[in-house]
Amino acid sequence: MTLDLANLRTLVTGGSRGIGAATVRLLARHGAKVAFTYLKREDEALALQSELAAAGHTVLAIRADQRRREDAQVAVAAVEAAWGGLDAFVGNAGIWAATPAELEDETVLLDILETNVTGLFRWHAEVIPALKRAGGGHLVLLSSTAGQRGESGHGAYAASKGAVISLVKSLAPELGPAGIRVNAVAPGWVDTDLSAPALRGDPAQRARIAAIFPLGRIPEAEDLAGPVAFLLSPWASAITGEVLNVNGGTVLCG
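Predicted structure:
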């Protein structure tokens, strides 16, 4: 049996690059109709849309800010207008930045929480009614190993991703009776633009990070796209409230 996502009407946030872009590509290639949001990378977003459209896939790029409920309303309305409904939401957009314990400037702290946590609540307030209108569906949220074990010097990010896990555990029983499954994918280090300052600047530091992986390599964005697609597929029809760890064996939390 092959992975069949034919006509799955999906909205992916933060889809212009990294894990988001890899997910958009994979879902589209397996038959899904995929809308994805971007905020600053318009050239990359439009290039991705053109690439997939030229290959015969149905894609839609939407400029939207994860922090704004108004943008969620616009994005959901665009998907429903284009395809008649929404079946799946992938909450991928997020930011990662340092927040030392002896915090002097709250700007970064508030930006992380507003984007990674509060923004998700605002988008869910628009996405979940749309899934119900479609008769059920799927939510897959991107968490992190940081949300499971913490991350030194990045307490706000770790707290935000721990909140994502708690949100999944809360939404799964709440939305199950409406036919909506809710799961998370939790990566560790992934070689994307987000982690580029740590992984692509200093070869020695990259080597130290790579050495912690039992599989001997740092995962790439495509390694995360497959698990997301799986959780959206009929193969995962009895899975909800779970956190699928995709971290190369670096965090074994069961």
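Summary: The chain has nine helices and seven strands.
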